[in-house]
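New to this. Comment on this protein:
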Amino acid sequence: MGGGLLAHHLLLPMGPHQDTLLTFLRRGEYPELTRWEDLGGALFAGPKAKIVEVMTEALKNRQKKTAKDLISAVPSDVFRVDPSHEAIAYYDRKTVERLYPKVAEGGSVNHAQSLQSLNLLMNYHLQNTWQDLFNDGIAVLKPLPKHTTTMIEPALDLARRLATCHESPIPASCPPNLLKCTPCVSSYPMKISTPARYRNRTGTYTIGTVPHPYTLQVLNAFRDDIYVSYIRRKTDRDHWLYLVFQEVLGTGISASARVVTFKDTVAAEYATSRSLWLASEEDTAPQDADWWFGFAIPKNVTDDGKSEPPVPGPERRPKPIHDPGDGPIAPEDELAREPELLRKAREVEKSKVESDVRIREVVEAWNLADTEAWRFARAFRARAASERQQWEEEESKYGGAGRDTSDERLSGRTRWKDDVN
């Protein structure tokens, strides 16, 4: 495929997003041929011209016909050898036999089942590493706590799933490169909080729900018949941005400056690894969450009252922590009305009825910064989905590994599927 990276499928990034090596690999610029000490042929990097040169040299070297890999087929000074790879985990056979004998022993009985166990183990380690990076927990923003419980439910559902321990053949194990990790334990789940303000903390992962200004006004007023004079006389302009960034920016910052800070919080290179922002019209957790986080997230949190490790039952399930200083929580009768109000607000957002369009445009004009934040969050999520689709189309050319289609001739399933029977 030209230049770039050549990585073994059992080699995974397993460390902080800002790690020096991972940052270098993401940059995609590799001026010289490089391999990593103790990883053998698991990872190579280099430019196209030098790759062609070293491959040609290896194939022409008649004195090394017995060479079993590229490294032994070329002179030792061809590659630059980098000793640093603390943020990379390699699950080769020797490592699995040494650290995870339970998985390795299964291979002698049922190879396919052993591979499935290894896959579960690697996914467990990926999620566990992510949880360790955010040891202060997950913050699900709730700037207007009294009547936005239903609106943030998809974000809260995703947080619960992220905090749930994934299935693993060895629940107490750690990745091969992070042997002193803190394994996920169901009885001590990851903390979930619902703060009213965004807090830029390294150990906290933030999930925000960005409402359309009309939706926010309907929920805040707790009525679906808001009108123009009400908006002009009884509502604060760009109230959502003001509340969310009140602790970070204070009170004397303009709405336009706040929306710039919001965009950096959503889309800056480092920020994308520390937060996820959803639009309020999404009534379920994102379907592409696995793609976004880099590991398979538990699909459901059990609700049958049983505690079956490693998935906690409801009595030990992580519950949101509400700070009394964040404001009141609605009583049960008001909570019951929220879904209907939210549904009607979403209908107005999409409506083409003249009266609905008029009030929607008035609300947007009165809240230009909040509207811009909502549009930006939607556009950013749409771009992420487009990038994933483009990647799948590209990968489908190489065995159909990335595309999901019912036609096996197109998807490559006939070629790649595992036959475990």
Summary: Residues 211 and 280 are 5 Å apart (CA to CA). DSSP finds 18 helices and eleven strands in the chain. Residues 303-316, 405-421 have pLDDT under 50 and may be disordered. The longest helix spans residues 368-395.
